[in-house]
Amino acid sequence: MAFSMHSHSGQFCPSHARGTLEEMVQQAIKRNMTHLALTEHMPRINVSDLYPEEVAEGVSISEFIPRHKAYLQEVLRLRERYQKEIKIIIGFEGEWITRQYGSTIKSLAHDPAVDFFIGSVHHVHGVPIDHNAQLYNQAIRLSGGTTQGIYADYYDLQLEMLVELKPRVVGHFDLIKLLNADPGRSPKEYGKVWKKIQRNLQFIVEYGGLLEVNSSGLRKGLPEPYPGRIICEEVIQLGGRFTLSDDSHSTVHIATNYERVVHFLETIGVQEVYVLERSDRHHDSERKAELFVKAVPLSVVKAALSSE
Predict the structure, then answer these.
(1) What average pLDDT values come out for the chain (308 residues) when binned by 10 residues?
(2) Tally of CB atoms within 10 A around 191
(3) Which residue range forms the structural domain that includes residue 210?
(4) Buried (b) or exposed (e) across 99-114, using 16+ Cβ within 10 A?
(5) With contact defined as beta carbons under 8 Å apart, do 295 and 272 qualify?
(6) 134: domain CATH number?
(7) At a CB cut-off of 8 Å and minimum separation 6, what does 128 contact?
């Protein structure tokens, strides 16, 4: 069985993704996936948090909540339609831009239709750090002008999110490396940053979160997925658990580079990954379904990929 706990569609993320939600589900079925988490980006709540292209396109902040509601209606329809072919888990990607977003994420997660959310950080000092080099450099300046400074601020902000939300899945743990001039450089070389990474990982392990191994780093040109080898080895030492994600933004991203990710995990000694599984026992429209964690041998994922 193959699966992804993180995906987006152009239907509900029109500024930076492609394809409809149904096309994403159909492609996941073609790629021999047994589980797919649909996790569109959460509604942002401040005009200042719009991306440059959204501002240029005249996007209104008032569009986001209605779009999120439409997303939930559509994903419920798709889960019913494709229930015999794939298990769909309904979620969203939480955006921890400032502390103000904590209450919004909790409110969105309270909806009975929502199974879980991904806890992610895409901004430092309110500036996107994975969008383009100009914005990344702006965030560096706000962090004191050094790479060590922005890394430290990123992991401190991530800890705020983790403590407040305790997300079931932690998204692209080391996303901060994407636009770094030397993204493959060991975080151990950034002084106090490594201790902050260890602190955050320890907290995730203690509350039982899953750290996604996200293949999108590879398709964006990084030598390793998120998180990199050194961080993954630390997770193993701490007794942590991994899940798999392709962070797809179009149908062509579904399971892209999964073979490389499986090989990467094999080389560091990972023998199993974990998927979120829904139980519909005692579930109705007013109550959430039970969600539990299921172990999947890495060899089973590998076999599923090779049998396509």
Answers:
(1) 94 84 96 96 94 89 96 97 97 96 97 97 97 96 97 98 98 98 94 97 98 97 96 98 95 94 97 92 67 96 85
(2) 12
(3) 2-306
(4) eebbebbeebbeeebb
(5) yes
(6) 3.20.20.140
(7) 51, 122, 135, 136, 139
